[in-house]
């Protein structure tokens, strides 16, 4: 009798295991969708607007560097910059499902290590569909050839490489992404002849504005005064006016001028910087300029991960 019962239970267990194995892709997909839809809701205290269509942006606390993850209502994801090293993977683990192995867009703003240093780790860990970069070559960095080679390997494996060398607008899931800079091929851009060599890579930073409904978010990389002045000379106030500014160059004294902030008139600003970093970012000068512009400041060195929920007519921000 015991042997018969053991046989029945073993057979039943094997059937269950076989069923789970055969349906593993479907189970994983369902769980992934549930997990991703709930992870921000679990983190969010914003009960009033839960369930409304929104774009979720996580300005990640990765120390001194930059990394932002955007997620659209249909699940499309875009990572803008990758921190200085593989710490980006742990940071992404705080806001992504462990079953998520794909990032749709990887945008690399410019070739400073605290922005692109973790990109090789991201490309090795995730399937990246589109790699977005300016094409600027930084020959002074020993790590940069590894970064370029990894991009080439990803393209061979099916990823698409997109070079930002002119002004362009993309439509992604009922939103627009407007790339304002570089508006010309970066290797011959006239702006670079006007800046110091030490500042050159900062002023190659991709600058783009995400618009969802009435709300606009500006991503700046390490944009400094020279690039800001160029943008103000080329684009109208209505183009540059935004609701939230990802402050350029971690809040350094050489970014976010009074004139630039006056045109942008952001209600909110996020600053990505490490605690007690050796550069003194964000500087008091930049903080005072933001205060004079009546801008509410959110700092990763004080708040940790900064979670932004962009609705068609409102923005909600909290920290995690």
From TrEMBL:
The segment(s) forming the Metallo-beta-lactamase domain are 63-274
Q: Which domain of life is it from?
A: Bacteria
> Which residue windows are transmembrane per the record?
none
Q: Which Pfam families match?
A: Lactamase_B
This chain belongs to which protein, by name?
Metallo-beta-lactamase domain-containing protein
> Where is the organism placed in the taxonomic lineage, from the top?
Bacteria, Candidatus Magasanikiibacteriota
């Amino acid at each position: 009798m015991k042997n018969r019962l053991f046989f029945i239970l073993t057979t039943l267990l094997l059937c269950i295991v076989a069923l789970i194995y055969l349906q593993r892709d479907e189970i994983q997909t369902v769980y992934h969708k549930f997990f991703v839809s709930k992870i921000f809701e679990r983190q969010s205290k914003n009960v009033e607007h839960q369930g409304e269509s929104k774009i979720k942006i996580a300005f990640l606390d990765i120390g001194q560097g930059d990394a932002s993850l955007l997620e659209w209502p249909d699940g499309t994801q875009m990572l803008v910059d990758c921190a200085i090293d593989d710490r980006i993977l742990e940071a992404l683990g705080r806001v992504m499902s462990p079953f998520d192995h794909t990032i749709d867009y990887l945008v690399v703003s410019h070739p400073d290590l605290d922005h692109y240093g973790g990109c090789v780790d991201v490309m090795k860990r995730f399937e990246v569909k589109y790699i977005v970069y300016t094409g600027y070559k930084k020959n002074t960095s020993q790590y940069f050839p590894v970064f370029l080679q990894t991009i080439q390997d990803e393209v061979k494996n099916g990823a698409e490489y997109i070079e930002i060398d002119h002004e362009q607008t993309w439509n992604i899931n009922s939103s627009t992404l407007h790339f304002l800079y570089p508006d010309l091929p970066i290797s011959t851009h006239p702006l670079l002849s006007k800046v110091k060599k030490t500042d050159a890579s900062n002023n190659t930073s991709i600058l783009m504005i995400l618009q969802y409904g009435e709300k606009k978010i500006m991503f700046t990389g390490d944009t400094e005064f020279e690039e800001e002045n160029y943008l103000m000379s080329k684009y109208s106030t209505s183009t540059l006016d935004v609701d939230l500014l990802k402050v350029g160059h971690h809040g350094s004294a050489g970014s976010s001028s009074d004139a630039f902030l006056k045109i942008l008139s952001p209600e909110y600003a996020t600053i990505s910087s490490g605690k007690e970093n050796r550069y003194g970012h964000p500087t008091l000068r930049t903080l005072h300029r933001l205060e004079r512009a009546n801008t509410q400041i959110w700092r990763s060195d004080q708040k940790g991960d900064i979670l932004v929920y962009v609705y068609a007519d409102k923005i909600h921000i909290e920290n995690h």
